């Protein structure tokens, strides 16, 4: 019996990450915990790359039995090109974020609790991988809860009063979302009798055609989507983000904003394709609701962002706006829209982590104050972080050659469903591009302008920080220039997902 | 915050620099007006709060009504023809004993058929205790001289109290509780119970012991180092057993763990070791929560 | 309507869920908020437990006789409830630890007052 090792890679990735979290509790030094975390993310990145090359070459999407029993009796994982691509990019970004933000972690978190912080980071990583690869809705719920508790622990890592308030606010909003998702799951189990996604899908197609249990089906859709939308901070449910990102470490904020929110969005994508098939979604008109909320989120997020004077809060509201883009892409409803959204998930993850890490370094250079005005001249004292921040800002605005432009271009291309939709999408894209420029460009000008007041010492970034900045910028350029093959992989993945 | 002339260009420059513009009199007036709300300015603060409360209750009542309407359309309670009674349940009940070796079919289901969920759940418990340690264990942020003084006073008061009834009774009951907990864990696959309930029982026994004899007595056999080693060790054993099971299962390799005769304690394949691991983790976690919440250290 | 009366366990579970949800959202006292979270989760377990029951059958522990499907209730919801209870306990423990830390710093349990104190603190720093 020959073992197909490559098919075991998703299972290895999840278990390695969880094992890393557990083993970190035995270490007694923060530095060793950091090295273990970096090692694990690198190994998972290599495994995901091999998996990605293999599944795209074979054009297959396989399921992996967790145990001796196939679906619907046992648990399963499912991996295809899209999942492998997401896992690969997320592991690289997590490695870079943790390495780039390590100075702030070691200085701001109490020294004997640094290893607990790394346990949380490892478990967040493990649960993101589990949410990407899962094929079972109850496993998704358990790992959502792991994600929630670990994220709130990362938010309160600094230990002062305001970070604890931010953490409790984040926990309350996340629990609301999880509660709605849980009752949606229970109702879904009640009307279909299955917990594995392919089996639920079969039953739902039968139910939707026969018209039985029509009201419960609509309510279940609503509960599941509202619950997951609350957790991924779609527009009216975004209030937990600004305080949380303002009061946590930069690496923590980068991981939460760039990776954790995206894992819930990927779960929504899996629900759309693998649980409620596109047929059922279109029959229930869910995509129009997502479209409207996406557009409102895009505009309102940008409006709130430009009223902020503190840089991390501004980046938080900018995340709200970008999540609005992704939901607008889901709402457009055709394959091109979903492809554009998936590409934007990658582009935003790469850019936001870059922005948070470089902003953290700039704040540290100018003495720890987070106001935009206080960052004046920080770029001249810390050129690596300044250039990195500028690249990130230009990408967010949507200048060609950067990652943000490719995703906005694809959003415009995908809005082919009728004149009304096309005009709304193009107007919203144009307005939000202008708003993005209005709040990002002043920060870039501020960091490169002449510093006033006393001369501060030039920052001494470590060699690893310089490498991290260069790597982030390279990823941004690769996503911006070589987007065609990535889009092809995403399209192949979505076709195999559906 | 600089005071700037009201010219448009200088306001724009100031705003680009992130400064707040403070006009002299006009802004003062604006500030006063800001405390009055934009909508319905004739209501007072209490009336506004009452309005929010009523609106909130209304929204939640609508939510409950929608859910009640859904419940009225769901499958009938207690009927054997529910969608949930399908081939999944059939195989769990009819082939459960041969395939898992456990008589308690629920234990067989959560530790064999759907073991990945239980793995995630053990991690949630571990994660919770680590985050409570992060928050409440004494360090320079959350413990100062006042807290230390209060804690020392509490310890002195406890030592002064004789508490003969509590101490004698605990000396009799604590071994019985621990024995019962061990019984529930070991019989998890043969009768109602299992790792979670048994672990909670043992944890409760430890808490009783701590209340009667003080933390220094518990420290003699259970301190923070042992707590970490037991939790991490059990979780690693669980991880190793389940990795073996998932790896052999997915790659269609032979599973060499014997299933035993159903009805014996040594049966059920890996279910007995897994129950023991889970029981120990839960016992440590329950006692850990109690110790951290009362005293800030285990 | 009478179907609702027949499904009374699920109806009670859903009403409790709504009450718990309302408390989590609207209460200003932190401890009451998290009691609301517990009520919400417990309501879901009641719902799941009701889902498994079938009239005339016993718990799925095969002590004697044959293991046929007509003798036992559905074991799947019981397993889901077991997992759910542990998750709920973990979230409650974490939230209570956060509340204790908040009380040490701000000396109040009221969320609105804490936000007000925090905003004043922020203003003083700037």
From TrEMBL, chain C:
> What membrane topology is annotated for this entry?
Multi-pass membrane protein
Q: In the UniProt record, which is one GO cellular component term? A: membrane
Q: Where in the cell is it found?
A: Membrane
Q: Which InterPro entries match?
A: CPA3_antiporter_subunitC (IPR050601), NUOK/Mnh_C1-like (IPR039428)
Q: Does the keyword 4Fe-4S apply?
A: no
In its keyword annotation, does this UniProt entry include Transmembrane?
A: yes
Q: Which keywords belong to this entry?
A: Membrane, Transmembrane, Transmembrane helix
Q: What is this protein called?
A: Multisubunit sodium/proton antiporter MrpC subunit
């Amino acid at each position: 019996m020959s073992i197909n090792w490559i098919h075991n890679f998703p299972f290895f990735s999840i278990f390695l990450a969880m094992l890393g979290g557990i083993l970190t509790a035995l270490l007694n030094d923060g530095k060793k915990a950091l090295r273990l975390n970096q090692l694990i993310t690198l190994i998972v990145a290599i495994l995901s790359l091999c998996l990605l090359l293999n599944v795209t070459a074979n054009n297959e999407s396989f399921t992996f039995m967790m145990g001796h029993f196939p679906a619907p009796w046992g648990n399963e994982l499912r991996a295809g090109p899209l999942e492998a691509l997401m896992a690969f990019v997320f592991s690289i970004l997590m490695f870079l974020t943790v390495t780039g933000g390590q100075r702030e972690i070691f200085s701001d978190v109490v020294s004997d609790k640094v290893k607990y912080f790394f346990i949380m980071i490892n478990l967040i990583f493990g649960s993101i991988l589990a949410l990407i690869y899962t094929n079972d809705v109850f496993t998704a719920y358990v790992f959502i809860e792991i994600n929630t508790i670990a994220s709130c622990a990362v938010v309160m890592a600094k230990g002062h009063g305001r970070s604890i308030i931010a953490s409790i606010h984040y926990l309350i909003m996340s629990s609301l979302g999880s509660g709605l998702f849980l009752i949606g799951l229970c109702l879904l189990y009640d009307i279909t009798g299955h917990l594995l996604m392919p089996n639920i899908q079969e039953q739902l197609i039968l139910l939707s055609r026969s018209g039985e249990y029509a009201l419960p089906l609509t309510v279940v859709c609503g509960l599941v989507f509202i619950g997951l939308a609350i957790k991924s901070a779609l527009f009216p449910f975004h209030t937990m983000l600004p305080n949380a990102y303002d009061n946590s470490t930069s690496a923590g904020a980068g991981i939460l904003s760039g990776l954790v929110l995206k894992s819930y969005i990927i779960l929504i994508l899996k629900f759309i394709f693998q649980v409620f098939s596109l047929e059922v979604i279109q029959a229930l008109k869910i995509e129009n609701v997502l479209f409207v909320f996406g557009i409102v989120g895009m505009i309102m997020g940008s409006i709130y962002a430009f009223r902020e004077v503190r840089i991390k809060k501004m980046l938080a509201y900018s995340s709200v706006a970008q999540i609005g883009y992704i939901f607008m892409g889901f709402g457009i409803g055709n394959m091109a829209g979903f492809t554009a959204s998936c590409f934007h998930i990658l582009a935003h993850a790469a850019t936001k982590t870059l922005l948070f890490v470089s902003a953290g370094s700039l704040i540290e250079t100018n003495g720890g104050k987070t106001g935009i005005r206080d960052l004046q001249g920080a770029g001249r004292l810390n050129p690596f972080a300044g250039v990195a921040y500028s690249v990130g800002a230009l990408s967010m605005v949507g200048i060609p050659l950067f990652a943000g432009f490719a995703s906005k271009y694809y959003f415009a291309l995908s809005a082919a469903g009728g004149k009304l939709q096309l005009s709304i999408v193009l107007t919203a894209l144009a307005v939000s591009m202008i708003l993005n420029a209005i709040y990002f460009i002043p920060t870039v000008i501020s960091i490169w302008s002449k510093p006033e007041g006393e001369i501060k010492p030039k920052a001494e970034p470590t060699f690893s920080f310089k490498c991290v900045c260069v790597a982030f910028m390279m990823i941004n350029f690769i996503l911006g220039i070589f987007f065609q093959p990535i889009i092809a992989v995403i399209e192949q993945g979505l076709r195999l997902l559906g | 915050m600089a005071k700037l002339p009201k010219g448009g260009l200088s306001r724009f420059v100031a705003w680009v620099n992130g400064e707040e513009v403070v006009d002299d009199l006009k802004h003062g007036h604006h500030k006063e007006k800001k405390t009055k709300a934009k909508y319905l300015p004739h209501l007072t603060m209490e009336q506004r709060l009452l309005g929010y409360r009523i609106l909130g209750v209304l929204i939640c009542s609508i939510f409950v009504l929608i859910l009640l309407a859904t419940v009225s359309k769901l499958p009938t309670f207690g009927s054997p023809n529910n969608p949930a009674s399908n081939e999944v349940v059939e195989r769990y009940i009819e082939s459960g004993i041969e395939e898992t070796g456990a008589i308690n079919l629920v234990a067989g289901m959560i530790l064999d058929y759907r073991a990945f969920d239980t793995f995630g759940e053990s991690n949630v418990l571990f994660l919770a205790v680590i985050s409570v340690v992060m928050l409440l264990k004494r360090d320079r942020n959350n413990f100062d001289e006042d807290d230390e003084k209060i804690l020392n006073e509490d310890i002195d008061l406890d030592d002064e109290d004789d508490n003969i009834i509590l101490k004698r009774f605990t000396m009799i009951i604590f071994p019985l509780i621990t024995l019962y907990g061990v019984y529930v864990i070991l019989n998890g696959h043969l009768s109602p119970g299992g790792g979670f309930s048994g672990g909670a029982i043992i944890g409760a026994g430890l808490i009783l012991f701590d209340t009667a004899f003080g933390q220094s007595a518990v420290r003699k056999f259970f301190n923070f180092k042992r707590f970490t080693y037991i939790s991490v060790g059990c979780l690693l054993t669980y991880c190793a057993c389940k990795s073996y099971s998932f790896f052999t299962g997915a790659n269609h390799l032979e599973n060499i763990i014997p299933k035993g005769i159903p009805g014996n304690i040594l049966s059920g394949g890996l279910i007995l070791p897994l129950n023991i691991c889970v029981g120990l983790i839960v016992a440590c976690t329950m006692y850990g929560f109690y110790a951290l919440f009362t005293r800030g250290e285990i | 309507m009478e179907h609702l009366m027949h499904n009374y366990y699920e109806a009670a579970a859903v009403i409790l869920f709504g009450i718990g949800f309302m408390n989590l959202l609207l209460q200003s006292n932190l401890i009451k908020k998290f009691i609301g979270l517990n009520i919400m989760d417990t309501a879901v377990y009641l719902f799941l437990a009701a889902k498994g029951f079938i009239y005339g059958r016993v718990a799925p522990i095969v002590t004697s006789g044959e293991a046929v499907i007509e003798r036992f209730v559905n074991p799947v919801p019981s397993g889901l409830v077991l997992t759910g209870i542990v998750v709920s306990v973990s979230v409650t423990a974490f939230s209570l630890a956060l509340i204790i830390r908040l009380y040490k710093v701000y000396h109040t349990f009221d969320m609105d007052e804490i936000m007000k104190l925090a905003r004043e603190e922020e203003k003083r720093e700037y």
